[in-house]
Amino acid sequence: DLLVVGSANADLVIGVERRPAAGETVLGTDLVTSPGGKGANQAAAAARLGARTGLLARVGDDAHGRMLREAQREAGTDTSTLLVGGAPTGVALITVDPAGDNSIVVSPGANARLTPEDVAAAEASLAAAAVVSLQLEIPLETVAAVARAASGTGTRVVLNPSPPAPLPDDVLAAADPLVVNEHEARYLLDDGAGSDDGGDGDDAPERWAAALLERGPRSVVITLGAAGALVAERAPDGPVRTVRVASPAVRAVDTTGAGDAFTGALGWRLGRGSGLEEAVRFAVRVGAAAVTRAGAQESYPNAQELEKEFPA
Ligand code: ADP
């Protein structure tokens, strides 16, 4: 149903009372090492929910790489396109504050060696998937190669431009939907192309979504943290239709990987034939579940837990 093409990282997580300023040292909790990376997270989220999911990614021939493969196997992901070698496994250094907010430094490692040739070699997996999900923790030329190949095979593209970077027009145009959080939305709208981001105000997300649709994606989803998400689609030759979808109210423990859980779940539901709004209604439940537990992949619910704790 879903092929995720993206990063796999070892997340090295430390809890802190507050973040250090430049030149300052603060003490944190014991280190927790866990599987992460936006691509691996999305695949694990979908697979754990029961999706038939593949992950095209690259890890190093090292302990972190073996941990990542094992985590995907446990979640139920098809790891036949999880490639090994070229550089050490990518690492993310993460601090989590008492509010559950995170800040992250990423060393791409093997993720930077996932090439367009690797994409070409996995073309059968791409052609077999209803949806391919992309993020930007791998080379942009690799992302572009997937978007191009997907248009040839009729595979729907879900694109989360994170970490945000300037995107070629054909990649933006392939996105259906473009999935962004508030930070990524502001970045894309403030890229020097002269677009007014609409400023702030209660309806800012609606204005961002309309402005983002002007850039070419077929649809846009803006995630709004505790407030849920905004769905925006342009009717053929018609007006922009926007819908807000509320997230279940939860006590946030750790937001690490919440957006990835949301996007993995969204891609799966779209691959199963759901409409965009229906898929987002499902995805906000998965995102909410993910913030109620610590960690990224470890915080993701299976289908039974989701139905019990966050019924539709
Ligand atoms: P990112 O993690 O990429 O910054 P968001 O913070 O917007 O993305 O979160 C993604 C999704 O996770 C939201 O759309 C929502 O469904 C869920 N979520 C995140 N934070 C919360 C929260 N505090 N309460 C409930 N749901 C949340």
From TrEMBL:
Regulation: Activated by a monovalent cation that binds near, but not in, the active site. The most likely occupant of the site in vivo is potassium. Ion binding induces a conformational change that may alter substrate affinity.
Enzyme Commission number(s): 2.7.1.15
GO biological process: D-ribose catabolic process
UniProt-listed Pfam families: PfkB (PF00294)
Alphabetical keyword list: ATP-binding, Carbohydrate metabolism, Cytoplasm, Kinase, Magnesium, Metal-binding, Nucleotide-binding, Potassium, Transferase
Co-factor note (free text): Requires a divalent cation, most likely magnesium in vivo, as an electrophilic catalyst to aid phosphoryl group transfer. It is the chelate of the metal and the nucleotide that is the actual substrate.
Binding positions (substrate): 9-11, 37-41, 137, 260
Cofactor section: Mg(2+)
Keyword field contains Kinase: yes
Gene Ontology MF annotations: ATP binding; metal ion binding; ribokinase activity
InterPro entries for the chain: PfkB_dom, Ribo/fructo_kinase, Ribokinase, Ribokinase-like
Location(s) in or outside the cell: Cytoplasm
Annotated positions binding K(+): 254, 256, 290, 293, 295, 299
Catalysed reaction equations from the record: D-ribose + ATP = D-ribose 5-phosphate + ADP + H(+)
UniProt pathway: Carbohydrate metabolism; D-ribose degradation; D-ribose 5-phosphate from beta-D-ribopyranose: step 2/2
Domain of life: Bacteria
Residues involved in ATP binding: 181, 223-228, 259-260
An annotated GO cellular component: cytosol
Record domain Carbohydrate kinase PfkB: where: 2-302
Active site, UniProt feature: 260
Subunit comment: Homodimer.
Function, in words: Catalyzes the phosphorylation of ribose at O-5 in a reaction requiring ATP and magnesium. The resulting D-ribose-5-phosphate can then be used either for sythesis of nucleotides, histidine, and tryptophan, or as a component of the pentose phosphate pathway.
Family statement: Belongs to the carbohydrate kinase PfkB family. Ribokinase subfamily.
Protein name from the UniProt record: Ribokinase
Species of the source: Streptomyces daliensis
Gene giving rise to this polypeptide: rbsK
